[in-house]
Amino acid sequence: MSEKEKAGRRGLLRAAAVGATATAVLATPGVSRAQTTTLRFQSTWPQRDIFHEFAQDYVERVNRMAGGRLRVELLAAGSVVGAFQVLDAVHAGTLDGGHGVVAYWFGKNKAFSLFGTAPPWFGDANQMLGWFYHGGGEALYKELLGEILKVNVVGFLSGPMPTQPFGWFKQPIERIDQIRGLKYRTVGLAADLMAEMGAAVVSLPGGEIVPALERGVIDGAEFNNPSSDRVLGFPDVAKTYMLQSYHQRVESFEILFNKGKYESLPAELQAIIRHSAEAASADMSWKLQDRYSKDLLEMTQRQGVQARPLPRAILDAQLAAWNNVIVRLEGDNSSPSNGPFFKKVCDSQREWCRRVGNFFLRYEASQVAAYNHFFASR
Q: Which residues bind substrate (predicted)?
């Protein structure tokens, strides 16, 4: 081989080596060399509650998909701040994020509860999430956070909840007059609704409800679902479980992050945080079918709980009370961030529910008829 041919071959080998190195650089993910960002993320739930488990399910999705670049560290309610202080703590940067419900911030602006404990014009909570992500709700939520309250947070809604039971009582609730003067725990717009019906409303975080009911500080209470209610100890202090209600027909979880911390993350990690909320939302809606149904049977078959439907007369009274609450809050003109914004959100929801609710009522065959056909005789 001539010197000229040898030189040419060496040049080709060098070019091939450079190309291989470049390919290796491109093929090696930056994840392995990136520094891990750790975020402190507190739920508003006691550690034993299934809601804290749902928060853990969300966190695990983020951590697995982030591939070592981001780690979200979950803490239970009270680890840093109380359940009702999580929004303020995330805003201030005391916490990097939190898992709760929008209704907990109801005292800051009543429109908050429209994104959580909305009036029962939604058919179910999945329809509410549909409005939020595809019907203009998210833009209104961002307006409330960023322009009206000016809090330094970003948030996502996740996890459609079934209709919440009216709750736990020492005796069955059979007449409307039993609600007048009743010391009753609830949160959000449901507090206005129950006050409209004559109850004396007390708002308490989840971990404080059963002790208050046991001591007689309250006469009745709702929290959310059979699994949470069972593990929190409701069957130990009351045996009457009133199901079916319009006080909290639809609700979902809220996932919050400090805005500055969130926006400092690379775009792909921001996407993981957001899309993990969607993935956790779907999984939660499947998991609860298994857990809630089992725990309701456990309470009624083994713990002496009497589960009763709320009478139709009380359901009708709830709907009538909702009318009064909505009219009053829409007409509150003390500031643009009260009545006018509240009505703006309600108008958006009504437009969505009129169209989407009509679609499903026309489109779906009766679930009751099909269930009775296959299972009622057994």
A: 164, 185, 222, 248
